Amino acid sequence: MTYDLVLANGRVIDPETGLDAVRDVGITGGVIRAVSDVPLEGTERLDVGGLVVAPGFIDLHSHSADLAGHRLQALDGVTTVLELEAGAYPVARAYRQAELEGRPLNYGFSTSWAAARMSVLAGVDPAASLEVLLANIGRAEWQQPGNAEATARIVAMLEKDLADGALGIGILVGYAPLADPAEYLAVAALAARAGQPTYTHARELVEQDPNTPIDGAEEIVRAAAETGAHMHYCHVNSTSVRHVDRVLGLVERVRAEGSKVTTEAYPYGAGMTGVGAAFLAPELLHRRGLSPHSIGLLSGGRFADDAELRAAREREPGSAAFVHLLDEEDPAQFAFIQKALAFEDAAVATDAVPLIRTPDPAAWPLPADAASHPRTAGTYGRVFRQLVREQALLSLPEAIRRCSYVPARVVPALHRKGRVQAGMDADLTVLDPETVADRASYAATVAPSEGFVHVVVNGRFVVRNGALLPESMPGRPVRA
Ligand SMILES: [Zn+2]
């Protein structure tokens, strides 16, 4: 038997079976055909001795779905990029566009509650476009409570998209915080009927806004219990911040009672949003324990006082700003992030944002002034450098599990990914455990990670010997 490609002598880690041993991996036709302790023959046989062969990383939460974003994420060990939190509507159009352009990594989308709601309540044509969604996200019309008829229309739109292969329903309820909790339950009930998850950006917690119609964490767990839906709690780190103990305690309790609630987190203390966002008004910052000094424009330092922040909000409300919700340098604050990442069965997910100042997403290398949040380029590298090597919060196999198998278990359509076993998709990340690291920072925001030596998608190299292969486009759609 001769395989198309053999990755030879690597330390193979398979989170599902617990395999952690030196093996040859034989790949033919984009599928893993053999994982063997005797040498395999291949048309190409690449020695990966001393390196770890892991299932390719699956990012459940990436808004960076274009070519430039895929390439940066490939260099960070990712093989499947999913836009599940915001989603896309109509979902068939998002798949069609990615298919026409080609993608290096596998891709998939949920349908978008926010886009459907904007269409029904604000007359927006969503066009399966994140740009359209972001351009309208601050408009009051779509954020209002809807009536029963509006809810019925929104649910019907989402139902059609689920039939078209959407990987569940993304619910940005935190951006329409006055939406009726009954509508949220109706959407969760639809997901339960369809057998697909929902992915929520939670509403405010009561500690953050005592006037919220319902506590953001309570709403998610209640929907799981009442409808039976699988509720995935997006970036539990950044919406829970200092209240992560209460939120995770709640999730733990309802899980013990049989509800299906999963979580994800990213290893950064800063979020990113337009500097004009409502919650960044100087008079509201105290609710999150923030000050003007917690906020800085992408292109400059942090604000000194209320007056500077006010001026920027008036001058350039749409400009991207880092919001340092937690200070990464302060161990007590970093502990909140660690808790979210170390929580049982929490997935690592990036919340990667679209690159700015990249007029041609197909151009590689990126323009010198391209920018993003460092989590776009560095999340996975940072997990291995910081949480595995420096802080020993996670073991190497456990970190790999949270980047691959755990997310694969969230989305039913990923049942052949996140595993290094015969019969599984040949999406593999080959990393050097001694050197793998992020290089992106708040100053150098798109510096690619290092130490992800080879990245294989459907049996083909996207990254080889640490270098991106710009011509390689083996990504395939992942559909329900
Ligand atoms: Zn979000």
Radius of gyration: 22 Å
Ligand kinds: zinc ion
The helix fraction, in percent, is 25-40%
Biggest sheet details? 9 strands, mixed
Count of helical segments? 15
Distance between the termini: 34 Å
Uncertain segments: none
What amount of the residues lies in strands? 15-25%
Main structural class: alpha/beta
- Outline type: globular
Oligomeric description of these chains: single chain
Number of strands: 21
Question: Could you characterize what this model shows?
Answer:
- Strands 1, 2, 3, 4, 5, 18, 19, 20 and 21 form a nine-stranded mixed β-sheet that branches. The chain has a six-stranded parallel β-sheet with strand order 9-10-11-12-13-17. Strands 6-7-8 form a three-stranded parallel β-sheet.
- It is built from 15 helices and 21 strands.
- It is globular, with a radius of gyration of 22 Å.
- Helix 3 packs across helix 6 (148-163), helix 6 (148-163) packs parallel to helix 7 (181-194) and helix 8 (216-227) runs parallel beside helix 10 (244-256).
- It has helices at residues 67-74, 91-101, 113-122, 130-136, 140-143, 148-163, 181-194, 216-227, 236-240, 244-256, 306-315, 331-342, 374-390, 396-403, 405-410; strands at residues 2-14, 19-28, 31-36, 41-47, 52-55, 57-59, 78-83, 106-109, 111-112, 169-171, 198-200, 231-233, 261-265, 270-274, 295-297, 320-324, 347-348, 428-431, 452-457, 460-464, 467-468.
- Strand 10 (169-171), helix 7 and strand 11 (198-200) form a beta-alpha-beta unit.
- The structure holds zinc ion (ZN).
- Zinc ion (ZN) binds at residues 85, 201, 234-235.
- Residues 85, 201, 234-235 line the site of zinc ion (ZN).
